[in-house]
Design a protein that fits this description.
Layout (H helix, E strand, L loop, with lengths): L13 H9 L3 H30 L7 H18 L3 H5 L4 H24 L4 H25 L9 H27 L8 H20 L18 H20 L2 H31 L5 H33 L1 H20 L4 H29 L2 H29 L7 H31 L7
């Protein structure tokens, strides 16, 4: 089969032309700037937290500690996330971006002081959780604001560009934090440096948001019709209705379950790498451990980026579910082949491949939900998807805590995760074959 790339009148590929046109929107550029700064700061802040929790020389961090930290920071975010939109539809979104960024500046500064002052862990986690909660509102506000700064014709391109650019900005922020923490400093400041930098960039984010007019991003006051309490209750009922609708969409349900399984695998492996970097790599040198962890995270991020380039090409040849099955099967093979060495170089290669297949599977899941779920339920199903995505990640940390030894060397965990990937590949392949059979009988069905 031959595939043709649509081009504009000047001979450029159509997506490139759309991107050039999109960047001509002044307010889109300003909103994108806010997103890039915000997620760059998020990368700085999250690495600062990770190194404080995992690499503090005076602490003997365990997998259970990491699981507890993930639960504190991610579970409230996951459970409350769907209700963020209820409040966002009643506030000036531009003011949410401004005040949210200023609040994160204050909270990140306080977190920095808590690290320097050797404060109780519960107070540190409470402050970090507050930053994460505000992030939920800021990210939701950025997404909700997009239709106000681009026309409908280019909204799809804007939705594709903005989150991808934000993810890359967060990865660059994480890498910047790793480099900053390796600079020569007096003892006691290294854990706080990345958090302090994040506070400074959050302040820049708020200043960048001030460049937009107060009413630009909406919502318009006349569009707010429901009372807050009824809107919250309606959101809860909507989530239940979305779950019921999802149970009637077999392909979407099973694809989502497969995505949760691969997310659980990825989370368990992340905890493994954290423990290896803390205790097994670098011969006790925490700076070297941080550097190696940063390299693994960067390799995984490169795999995520590669997936955005490879996945459209792969789906065109294997179908969506075929590519998902291939991703899971690749992980099942590559993980024991490289992971059982528990050495940095094989782990770097494995991290790149696992980043690629994890993001490839997520792209398939996003597309399956978009195409299999009725439009009237799509937003609610994606809210459930977001909750499941993070809950699976936290659950992985809890399971890893039960299996992993202190140094992270667990053949049992690596082989168990590989078997989960293999089982997922088999299940998705069976789903694909069933979908092909239905397509043969009903040609109007979705392409698998």
């Amino acid at each position: 089969m031959t595939f043709h790339v649509k081009r504009d009148a000047a001979g450029r590929p159509a997506p490139v032309a759309d991107l050039r046109a999109l960047l001509r929107f002044r307010d889109f550029r300003r909103l994108l700037t806010v997103r890039l700064l915000s997620q760059f700061a998020d990368g700085l802040f999250q690495v600062g937290l990770a190194t404080y929790v995992v690499f503090a020389p005076e602490e003997q961090t365990t997998p259970g500690d990491i699981a507890a930290a993930m639960a504190v920071l991610l579970l409230p975010y996951s459970l409350l996330g769907p209700f963020a939109g209820v409040l966002l539809d009643r506030m000036s979104r531009r003011q949410v971006l401004v005040h949210g960024s200023l609040l994160r500046t204050a909270l990140a500064t306080l977190t920095c002081l808590l690290v320097l002052g050797d404060a109780p862990d519960w107070l540190f986690y409470l402050c970090a959780l507050a930053v994460t909660a505000v992030n939920r509102f800021v990210l939701a506000g950025l997404s909700a604001s997009l239709p106000r700064v681009v026309d409908g014709e280019r909204l799809v391109v804007a939705n594709a560009l903005s989150p991808t650019a934000g993810t890359l900005a967060a990865s660059v922020g994480a890498a910047t934090a790793v480099v900053a923490q390796l600079l020569p400093r007096t003892q006691g400041t290294e854990d706080a440096l990345a958090v302090a930098l994040a506070a400074a960039v959050y302040l820049l984010t708020g200043l960048a948001a001030l460049r937009m007019a107060r009413g630009l991003l909406g919502p318009d006051p006349q569009e707010v019709v429901d009372h807050l309490t009824s809107a919250v209750a309606g959101t809860a009922r909507g989530l239940v209705a979305g779950l019921r609708h999802l149970t009637r969409r077999r392909r979407a349900t099973w694809t989502l379950a497969a995505m949760a399984t691969t997310r659980l695998c990825y989370g368990a492996l992340l905890v493994t790498v954290l423990m290896l970097a803390r205790y097994a790599w670098g011969d006790g040198d925490t700076d070297e451990g941080v550097a190696l962890l940063g390299a693994v995270v960067a390799a995984s991020g490169a795999g995520f980026f590669a997936a955005t380039l490879v996945t459209p090409w792969a789906i065109a040849r294997t179908g969506r579910l075929g590519w998902f099955a291939l991703c899971a099967a690749t992980a099942a093979v590559i993980l024991p082949a490289l992971g059982l060495f528990f050495r940095p170089v094989p782990m770097l290669i494995a991290a790149f491949v696992l980043g690629l297949v994890s993001q490839g599977a997520k792209i398939v899941t996003d597309t399956e939900i978009q195409s299999s779920v009725d439009d009237a339920y799509r937003g609610r199903v994606f809210s459930l998807y977001d909750m499941l995505y993070n809950i699976a990640f936290v659950s992985a940390a809890g399971l890893a805590a039960l299996v992993l030894p202190a140094d992270g060397r667990s053949p049992t965990l690596v082989l168990g995760v590989a078997l989960l990937y293999a089982a997922t590949a088999v299940a998705v392949e069976r789903l694909r074959r069933h979908a092909v059979s239905r397509e043969t009988l009903h040609p109007a069905a979705d392409t698998p």
